[in-house]
Structure formats: C-alpha cells, structure tokens
Design a protein that fits this description.
Elements: H1 10-20, E1 22-25, H2 31-48, H3 51-56, E2 58-61, H4 64-67, H5 69-75, H6 78-88, E3 94-103, E4 131-137, E5 149-150, E6 174-175, E7 183-187, E8 192-193, E9 203-211, H7 221-225, H8 233-238
Antiparallel strand pairs: 1-7, 2-3, 3-9, 4-7, 4-9, 5-6, 5-8
Helix pairs in contact: 1-6
The structure holds 2-oxoglutaric acid.
Length: 251
Amino acid sequence: MDGAEVKHDVSAIVAEINERGYCFVPSIISAAKADEARRALERLLAEEATDEIRRAKTQRVGGIAYKHPIFAELLAHPLIVSIWQTYLDDQDVICSTWSANTAYPGYDKYGWHPDYPYWWINQPWPLKRVCGQTIWLLDDFSDENGGTGFVPGSHLEGRPPPPEWNEQWPADAQILTGARGSALVFHGALWHTARPNRSDQARSALLGMYTRPFFLTQEDMLAQLDKVENPSEMLRQLMGAKRHQPNIIGG
Ligand SMILES: O=C(O)CCC(=O)C(=O)O
C-alpha cells in the first residue's frame, strides 16, 4: 500500500507482537509525509557528516526530537503511542531513545543484537514486557537496499544472538521490506541487525524505543526536551517530564 494512511487495530497488532515478537504496520503515514521526514533528515545528514562517517557508509543522527518538528510529531504519533501503552499496559510510557539511522550505498556490515536495556539485564532475560522498539521506514525497504534483518520468535530466547551470525546469515532470519511510512514494532529483545545496502540510494529509518516510566532511559530525554519548542503534553510525557523523580524522604 502506498500513499494513503490506513486505520489499524491496536489489539491485533499487540497480539501479534506477543505471539511472534513483532508486527509490520503498513502505511501509518502517507508516502508524502515520509518523504517530508526524509528530506528533513537529509538536511541533518549533510550538516553532520564527517570523513569517518563517509568511510563507514552509515550515519546515526541523534537529538532528532528537537532538530525538526516532524520528528517530534512522529515520536508522539497517536497509533505508535497507543500500541506501546497497550503492549506495556501503562498509559505513562516514556521514550528511551529516538534517533535516525542511514545506510549508504556500499554499507556492508551485520551486527545482530537485541536493544537496550537487555544488554545490561542478567540472563536468562525476563519474558515480561519491558520495552518496545519502533523502526519507521523513511524509504521503501528492500532486500537490496538494506531492509533490517530480524528473527521471528527470538524475543523468547532470553539471551543475545550468537556472535558468529555476523559472519553467516542465519536460516530463520527475515528481511524487513515494505513501503515508506510503515513501521516495524517489536519486543525489545528481538534479535535484529542492519544489513548491507547494495542499491545506489541511501536507506533511512527512525528508531524509537518506548518503555515503562520507571526504567532508566538509554538517552537523556529530559535534556533534549529542554530544546523542543512548544512540546505537546504527550511529547512532554514521552520525554520524561512527568515521570517520578528521585527525592529524599522528609527532605
Ligand atoms: O537501521 C537498521 O536497519 C537497524 C538499526 C538497528 O538495529 C539499531 O540501530 O539498533
């Protein structure tokens, strides 16, 4: 599906994440809106590129919530927020990290991993719902241009993926393909990887992790919130303005 935004069933999406560890949600925003976001990102990519980035053929842009209003809007997209509120069974969800990832033509690495905070949790990891990752497609994703790799059901393994997978593609892995404006939403422990870009165009994604408000976030979201002009109430919540702050009893 391309162009139109479609209506989605949050309960069905959450049921699929519970069962398989992920759900592909098509056309959350129109292709035109995804193009607007990609153009905003392209300006940042050009401003922030360094020789090291050009050599690595991959570029991460952080702080996007305050660098352009369209990224603040997508971070607080009502469907995405509703999916994670339902999945995490908590209205007060917050965002742990929000950034963009671009693979340029010639990028050729794999790096299988789960996401933060699983890196720091003792194994076997708890199977309860800790956090949910969102990969927004800003380009049409294909096998050729480096659609993200992921392994269905791997969120139940309770451990990280084997390091040798970075050398040999695992038999059970799938490739995220689909139209820009769509998103893959998944359990934070699902094994996934960026993939080589064998096309002649850059491939960009936005990555947003949502979690329950008592977890330490991966990034300092409050410091970023200070730089957002006129944040909505939902954006303030997501960036941690309403979460419990440690205090001193009686103090
Ligand atoms: O850009 C991608 O395809 C995936 C990136 C990723 O997995 C990450 O940054 O954690």
